[in-house]
Amino acid sequence: MTSVAGTRLVLRGRGIVPGRVAGRALVSHETISGWGGIEPATGTIIERRHELYGVCFTGKVLVFPGAKGSSGWSGFFQSTRLMGTAPLAMVFTNLTTKAALGAIVTRVPTVTEFDDDPVAKITTGDRVEVDADNGLVVVYGPRPGHPR
Prior knowledge:
The protein is α/β, with parallel strands linked by helices. The chain has three helices and 13 strands. The strands form three sheets. The chain has a nine-stranded mixed sheet with strand order 1-2-13-12-4-8-10-11-3, covered by helices on one side.
């Protein structure tokens, strides 16, 4: 259940990769392709028609619907870990085997299967805490003008 307590929103889901981190959100309303969609050396989305084309996800909490494309998705995200360009955490709504495997090999805290849609509730720049040990994402705000 989603709850608003003071200035925070708590989303409850299922932790896939354990860990706890806090950082700024980067939200995509579109799925993300690994092979041909990201540049692992820079942590940048390079899919030309993607809403986040040219945006770097390194060190951000990546909030997105899930993976698209081939099973190579996980390999490209693993490369971001090896190159030091991985997202800080992953928060996604559509659990697939490629997204789960990608999260595991990237080794960043990951939460999915939420009680409410994080893509709709979180805005790029929000400060979020990902507690994948307990399946929680806490969003601090709302920021002025935030549509919550």
